[in-house]
Write a structure and sequence with these properties.
The protein is an alpha+beta fold. It is built from three helices and ten strands. Strands 3, 4, 5, 6, 7 and 8 form a six-stranded antiparallel sheet that branches. It is elongated.
Length: 276
């Protein structure tokens, strides 16, 4: 009787365990199916206007410059567009690479046209100066680089009064190119022209410097935004400074020759010194 009771208890335990196992398996299976279903649900998308080609600043947007893609994201870029018609005819004021969204912050105001004029901020002016290859820092002055502007003048043609001064600092270069002009004999020649972005007061200084003296550009690191204070340089100071330095050197006493090495020699109770 006792054996039958033990067998019945074992059968009940085995059955309960099996039922629990089956129930656990079904729960885990249903959860996995739910997870897989959620993973395959497509993310929400919306149309977004992007650049189809590389667009340099000043470009006027045309249909062939644009693409509309389905942007898969829960966040829409601020200032973006969903309809290409909304940006056609507007100019780019910052370089744009293919696939980059077209944003309002990178567009010139409506009806402002294209080209260089469209990238000039309010309150600024574009002034072009004629330079040669050396003044143009050997071809390294390119759009979006920054330069300091120096001017050298020779009042009255007197060499002793020649002077140089840095008149503008950290000026952005808008354009660098060439144009054809006539030389003194009327023959065409190619000259380099650098267009700088300045405010009206700086434009006046730049114009006066170009008319009364010679302009020199100094290329600077675009990350270096610090201004410096200089007193300028003039020829008389340079010459006098050189003369004063030469006079100071002449007044200095001649250095004494180094002493010859000596050795003390001891022979018994005698000491002698020998010089080499």
């Amino acid at each position: 009787m006792r054996r039958i009771l033990v067998i019945c208890i074992l059968i009940l335990a085995i059955g309960s365990g099996g039922a629990a196992s089956i129930l656990t398996y079904r729960i885990l299976k249903n959860r996995r199916v739910a997870d897989l279903t959620r993973g395959t649900t497509p993310a929400p998308t919306f149309p977004l206007v992007v650049a189809a080609v590389k667009l340099p600043y000043g470009s006027v947007l045309q249909p062939e410059h644009l693409n509309t893609v389905e942007w898969a994201s829960t966040v829409r870029p601020e200032g973006s567009f969903t309809d290409p018609q909304a940006v056609l005819g507007r100019a780019i004021i910052e370089n744009v690479v293919p696939g980059e969204p077209i944003l309002e912050s990178r567009l010139a105001p409506k009806d402002s046209g294209g080209g260089l004029a469209s990238v000039i901020p309010k309150g600024k002016r574009a002034v072009s100066v004629r330079v040669n290859e050396i003044i143009g820092v050997a071809g390294f002055v390119l759009p979006r680089t920054r330069v300091d502007v120096l001017v050298s003048v020779n009042p009255g043609g007197e060499k002793g009064r020649s002077a140089a001064k840095m008149i503008l600092q950290n000026v952005e270069v808008l354009a660098a190119g060439q144009k054809i002009e006539q030389d003194a004999e009327g023959k065409p020649e190619t000259v380099n022209v650098i267009t700088l972005l300045v405010n009206p007061e700086e434009a006046e200084k730049l114009t006066l410097a170009g008319n009364e003296g010679e302009i020199q550009l100094a290329l600077r690191n675009s990350l270096d935004l610090d201004s410096v204070i200089t007193s300028g340089a003039n020829l008389s100071t340079l010459v006098q400074g050189g003369r004063r330095e030469a006079a100071r050197r002449a007044d200095r006493p001649a250095p004494r020759p180094p002493a010859a090495p000596t050795v003390e020699v001891i022979r018994g109770n005698k000491r002698t010194t020998e010089t080499f």
